[in-house]
Design goal:
transmembrane, single chain, 20 helices, MFS transporter, about 525 residues, mainly alpha
Length: about 525
């Protein structure tokens, strides 16, 4: 078995930076596609729905195969899985620079890139666990987590800038260059040998793909306003229950399992992945509502919206680095508790600001508070969850951790967006129906227009749609729109607020648990 680095071993800054760069590429990749949709449609001669389907497929493939990807790393080598994951992303990025039709995007970017993500995420966390220890390990987890957070925040700004002033193909070309740089330092990575059972649990693999795939597909369909959401979530939920029962039965029979169910016997692991999921739900809820607020209410373009969100991403990045480097003897549970507390305070301050904000500057203080809270969480949670895991189980534990985070982010984005649009539709329709100015026909026209294009219903867009209507009708609809949008956004922001409160409650529970110790020294019965 590969020797675990001693806690006193020096901190390899170059390796840490390369791992952070790999995570940045992984997260920013989808942002580049999201902000480039119209340009991709124009240049390759496809449709918006086609590109959106490719984006959804990439998320679906990575989620469906992430637990299987962690097992592939066990069987064929964590370092090899890491390299294959990076090559999968590089293949997708290079394909995007030369793609001439949607088929190439679906095959190379969505499918091969999605499979790359399912290999890369668990392998990366396993390699961090095996190449660093003690304070150094905590710092690298914080750095990689901060890199993911800042990529999620600045990705739309970066992609929008390059797409606007150069080309979306250039953006993906630069992504491929970054991957080449990361691979150039692969010699610094020491592989982490797997010593467990090398047999394959085929049924467990199928159930895991159905479970994660069904749940994430349900969330994606929900986000897009499609049908059969409940059926998809039920299929995913039943497959998840079936997977857990199957794993327990196989474990009792002494047969190989995809994921060792004994991992979930540890209270440290359970609370760690729960907090990880809550953190990502809060981040996803904030990252869907705030850009829409800036672009729909303040009518900012993508560049201005990205700059307005910079206090969130930069404070998150800075605090994550400081928290990972200088936490010292402070208990991780206390830092996590403070982190969720800051998220709650920041969102609570943000709620009354929303209807009064006349520019992005009004959001500065609450965004710094929320970003600082998320930064503290990023600096602690990966290390808290994975540091006690033995080398034999770290890959599957990392897969579960990554799956929880990916699902949390998807759910936060979809649920907050759905809440906001539902509140907007209900509020607008209710005010329109009670308006003494609008006739019955005009009320119906307003409801239809809202249903077709609710998220783009800025005042400027409304003025264009209302051209030719009497001035009093225009003024009334603008008034209703102006009053309804902030209220809908406030309702959507209740999601990160409530999730933060749940995180605070869990943080209090964490304080009653022993702090995790490296390689199973704490809570060892559940990990060994």
């Amino acid at each position: 078995m590969t020797e675990t680095p001693h806690p006193e071993v020096g901190f390899d800054r170059r390796l840490a930076a390369l791992l952070a760069m790999a995570m940045f590429v992984l997260v920013v990749d989808t942002s580049l596609m999201n902000v480039s949709i119209s340009a991709v449609v124009r240049d390759v001669g496809t449709t918006v729905s086609g590109v959106q389907s490719a984006i959804a497929l990439e998320a679906l493939v990575s989620a469906a195969f992430i637990l299987i990807g962690s097992k592939v790393g066990d069987l064929f080598g964590r370092k090899r899985a890491y390299v294959l994951g990076l090559l999968g992303y590089a293949t997708g990025a290079i394909a995007m620079t030369v793609a001439q039709d949607l088929t190439a995007i679906i095959v190379f970017w969505a499918i091969i890139g999605g499979l790359g993500a399912s290999l890369l995420l668990p392998a990366m966390q396993s390699l961090i666990h095996g190449n660093f220890a003690g304070a150094a390990q905590k710092r690298v987890y914080a750095l990689v987590g901060a890199s993911a957070a800042i990529a999620a925040a600045v990705g739309p700004l970066l992609g929008g800038f390059i797409t606007t002033y150069l080309s979306w193909r250039v953006a993906f070309g630069l992504e491929a260059v970054v991957i080449v740089v990361v691979l150039s330092g692969i010699g610094l990575v020491k592989d982490v040998e797997y010593t467990g059972d090398r047999h394959v649990d085929v049924v467990g693999a199928i159930l895991s793909a159905l479970a994660m795939g069904g749940i994430v597909l349900g969330v994606l369909v929900w986000q897009e306003g499609g049908e059969a959401v409940g059926a998809l979530l039920v299929v995913g939920g039943l497959a998840l229950v079936g997977l857990m029962r199957w794993l327990v039965r196989r474990k009792r029979a002494g047969k190989p399992v995809l994921i060792d169910p004994d991992l979930f016997h540890s209270s440290l692991f359970r609370v760690g992945i729960t907090q990880q999921m809550l953190q990502q739900i809060a981040l996803g809820g904030a990252m869907i509502t705030l850009p829409i607020f800036l672009q729909m209410v303040l009518e900012y373009d993508a560049m201005a919206a990205g700059l307005s969100l910079a206090p969130l991403s930069l404070s998150m990045f800075a605090v994550a680095l400081v928290g990972g480097k200088r936490a010292g003897a402070r208990r991780p549970a206390n830092l996590v508790l403070v982190g969720f507390g800051l998220v709650v305070v920041g969102v609570a301050v943000l709620l009354p600001v929303v209807p009064r904000a006349e520019s992005g500057w009004y959001l500065l203080v609450p965004l710094v508070i929320v970003g600082s809270g998320l930064g503290l969480l990023v600096s602690q949670l990966n290390n808290y969850t994975l540091s006690p895991i033995t080398e034999e189980r770290v890959s599957e534990a990392a897969g579960v951790n990554s799956a929880a985070g990916s699902f949390g982010l998807s759910f936060g984005l979809a649920f907050a967006g759905a809440i906001m649009l539902a509140a907007l539709s209900l509020g607008f329709t209710a005010q329109a129906e009670s308006s003494p100015v609008l006739s019955t026909d005009q009320q119906q026209q307003v409801a239809t227009a809202l249903e077709d294009d609710a998220e783009l219903m800025s005042n400027t867009a409304l003025v264009e749609q209302l051209a030719g209507q009497p001035q009093d009708v225009q003024d009334e609809i603008i008034r209703i729109n102006t009053e309804t949008r902030p209220r809908a956004l406030q309702i959507a922001l209740l999601l990160p607020l409530l999730v933060g409160l749940v995180g605070v409650v869990n943080g209090l529970r964490m304080r009653r648990l022993p702090d995790p110790q490296p390689d199973g020294a704490a809570d060892g019965a559940a990990f060994g």
